[in-house]
Amino acid sequence: MYEMKSMGKSGRWLLLLLLLAASAQADQSAQFSISSPQFSNGGAIPARFTCEGSDTSPALAFAGAPEGTRSLALIVDDPDAPDPQAPQMTWVHWVLYNLPAGAAGLAEGVVDLPDGTLSGLNDWKRTGYGGPCPPIGRHRYFFKLYALDSVLPDLGRPDKAQLLDVIEGHVLARAELVGTYEKRR
Questions:
Q1: Which of 3, 41, 51, 175 has the greatest number of beta carbons closer than 10 A?
Q2: How would you label 28-41 residue by residue, b for 16+ Cβ within 10 Å and e otherwise?
């Protein structure tokens, strides 16, 4: 084994810098994330992305998918339905799977999904994004991104529960973005 004391001072500094750079790179790749330029994590979702606006999806950015990621899945849901003071169910707003592993995100109001991406059913029993439309109070909306070790077969139009069953055992990492919304009265 090579001993550091046999290195000169500049060699030790170079080795230290290389180790720090490698560590920083490993930390970056471990930082699987989802974000939006339209709202911060824990912040309010602008009305234009809700039933009170154009009901189009916000832009989303993905970063740091771990090594071995073959596809991504996205689920957007509201665990505060119908009333955040007495939640009774989780309302699903969007289900996507087989997003390409290298996808950098989704454009605002996305219509043409990345090649290979498939849609599942939301709780309106349709595919695509359905924006926040809470009947009462301020609700939380969880944008959950999953890095998967496989590309899934065509599941038809799975709902959230069906997709979660299929991805079990294939999740390499999970990232989350939370936005909030309360209807203007």
A1: 175
A2: eeeebebbbebbee
